Amino acid sequence: MTPALDYSPINDCRDALSRIDDVLTRHRPFWQARPFSEQSVPDWIAEHPALAKLLLGLDDDSVDRLQGSDTALLDALENHFPVCADIRQLIALPAASQPQCSEPPAGIPGNKWRQIDAFVAAASPLRAPYFEWCCGKSFLGEALVTGCFANAEADPVLSGVDIDAALLEAARHRAVPKRQLICADVLGDDLSGSLHHDHHLLGLHACGGLHQRMLSLGAEQQCHRISLSPCCYHRFIADYQPLSQFLRAASLRVSADDLRLAVRQSKTARRGERDARRQLQVWHLALLEQRQQQGRELSRFQSLPHSAVKRGFDDFCRRQLAANQYPEDLVTVNDVDMDAAELRLRNAERLGLAAMVFRRLLEMRCVLDSAQYLCEQGYVVALTQFCDSAISPRNILIDARRDDSCGGKAQRESTALP
Predict the structure, then answer these.
(1) Pairing of the two strands 225-231 and 396-402
(2) Of 141, 77, 134, whose CA–CA distance to 105 is shortest?
(3) Long-range CB contacts (< 8 A, 24+ apart) of 283-286?
(4) Which long-range contacts (CB under 8 A, 24 or more apart) does 167-175 make?
(5) Residue 410: its pLDDT value, please?
(6) pLDDT of residue 102
(7) If phi over 0 gives left and psi between -120 and 50 gives alpha, with beta otherwise, what is residue 138?
(8) Which of 170, 198, 210, 357 has the most crowded Cβ, counting Cβ within 10 A?
């Protein structure tokens, strides 16, 4: 297995964050552009006409391929966008050797099992008792306590927490022994009595505010080890704030809305889901254009599931107008220019690739903020890419082991210094 990228020394983590912030600050017009919602063309086009021409000339297959792969995107744009070389270096992570994936236990979806298998392999060796954060049906925990892995402990103990009672009930029906499942809101309920120093705290694809709470509570309770694969950095956060003292003092401010870019990647989505999402985008742009022509603001966009496409354009408009406090208005397909919306989306998809160049960099900023925070709290931290992006684009493992030596205490105290 390739060794993980060791960010134990705080200064190494600070240096990486400083370099990332320098790139992001110098290229703010690119990653903060909103081509899917802004009427005007992005500000960067005037200074980079060759890049804009290249992007607008891409065919649909190329756009689809570049949207799904950071490596392919950086390769395609590097000659017209020199910052790609810097980004490639800053987002580089060692990849863990992929396990020989066995058949999943009954009831665990195949791709979810591949994620679990890779996560456990990259984090091994593991030691119980385990505490699974935002566990859902507790597939990860089930795999750990039922001996699915060659290096599994004998008779391990597992706890898990999730807010969804129905998911926890489904987990209980799987009759896994020695598993305590807690129904609680991890953002609001007091879980300090459930988490303790002996726990190995685990989170596979915990979103935004959920994983920030996981790290802060885990560090507060001094869990001996924390292993996290973060996901959807913008979710469950009204006003994004970094965890680490270092990044809280930085001049660059990144919003929760900015962090949506970090997960704008559809490589693992089904074709039907991607087509439905695109149709919703066309409808949104058509309605937006119609309202702008009437001089009426459409400032909020209600996020809808893919299935909303089945209810049609009229229902879509009713929901969006109600969200913007226009409940009495009626817009039908005859009131909009759908062809113009299609063209606008086509151009936005292509120009949006310039923003996507920075998506993994924004993700690394969040990941390194978590790593820096854990270093500040006295942990030794390593980073690994635990699976291929085809299995999951959210494939970074933050693996932290508590350093209870004097050196760890000195390291925590040093973080208050400039």
Answers:
(1) antiparallel
(2) 141
(3) 283/313, 283/316, 283/317, 283/341, 284/36, 284/320, 285/36, 285/341, 285/344, 285/345, 285/348, 286/336, 286/337, 286/338, 286/340, 286/341
(4) 167/136, 167/137, 168/135, 168/137, 168/138, 170/137, 171/135, 171/136, 171/137, 171/138, 171/142, 174/107, 174/137, 174/142
(5) 35
(6) 73
(7) left
(8) 357
Cβ count within 10 A of residue 208 = 20
What are the extents of the domains in the chain? 1-268+349-418, 271-348
Greatest CA separation found in the chain?
72
Q: Is residue 33 within a helix (H) or strand (E), and if so which, with residue range?
A: none
Provide DSSP, 104-115. Answer: PPTTS-HHHHHH
pLDDT at 414 over 90: no
DSSP reduced 3-state for 95: strand
Please give the Cα distance from 16 to 91 (Å, whole number): 10
pTM above the 0.70 mark?
yes
Amino acid at 317: C
pLDDT of 26 > 50? The answer is yes
**pLDDT-wise least confident of 234-238, 324-328, 406-410:** 406-410
187-200 pLDDT, tens digit each: 999 999 999 999 99
CA distance 184 to 193: 13
- The pLDDT score that the predictor gives to residue 413 is 34
Distance CA 392, CA 84 (A): 23
CA dist 263 and 374 (Å) reads 23
DSSP state of 374: H
d(CA 95, CA 5): 9
pLDDT at 92 over 90: yes
What is the structure's pLDDT at 292?
A: 85
Average pLDDT over residues 6-27: 85
Query: For the domain 1-268+349-418, what is the CATH superfamily, name and number?
Result: Vaccinia Virus protein VP39 (3.40.50.150)
Q: Which two tokens stand for residue 264?
A: 């704008």
- Which segments within 190-314 are labelled E, that is strand? 200-207, 225-231
Choice between 101 and 231, residue whose per-residue pLDDT is larger: 231
The one-letter code for the residue type at 162 is D
The pair of three-digit structure tokens given for residue 404, joined into one six-digit string:
């209870």
DSSP letters spanning 155-224 = S--EEEEES-HHHHHHHHTT--SSEEEEE--TTTS--TTT--TT-EEEEEEEEHHHHHHHHHHHHHTT-S
